[in-house]
Specification:
By secondary structure, the protein is α+β, with helices and mostly antiparallel strands. It is built from two helices and five strands. It is elongated and about 70 Å long.
């Protein structure tokens, strides 16, 4: 049992790396006893996200798809990382998502690091 004064226990998900791009994403349990990777630190207004792509956090830490239309104007939601993953090709679902995917692609490119400079022996002969 537990102390009745304790708050509700949260399901520990943590962070996992995306197998496609290598970026960290929040690993969260769903109501269907499954796991989903959500874009970290991204909580857009629910009315800006199509109903079938809105993930709402519940009190116990799990998430569920929130298909209520129209949502409360101040309601926030989460989106799946697969929609923002720069290594996956998806249609342009909404403009700000395309911007997020582009920014994630730049972030992933920076993680690999720049090419080291060529040695003077490899420089072209400039005459």
């Amino acid at each position: 049992m537990g102390d009745f004064n304790e708050g509700p226990r949260r399901l520990g998900g943590g962070r996992s790396r995306c197998p496609f791009c290598g970026m960290l994403a929040d690993r969260v349990a769903t109501l269907e006893q499954d796991w989903v990777l959500l874009e970290p630190d991204m909580v857009p207004l629910a009315h800006t996200v199509p109903a079938e792509h809105r993930w709402i956090a519940l009190a116990d830490g799990r998430v569920t798809v929130y298909g209520v239309c129209p949502p409360d104007p101040s309601q926030r939601c989460r989106i799946e990382h697969r929609l923002a993953c720069p290594a996956r090709s998806l249609p342009d679902l909404w403009p700000w998502l395309t911007t997020l995917r582009d920014e994630n692609a730049r972030w992933a490119a920076r993680q690999t690091g720049p090419e080291p400079p060529k040695s003077p022996e490899e420089w072209p002969d400039a005459g």
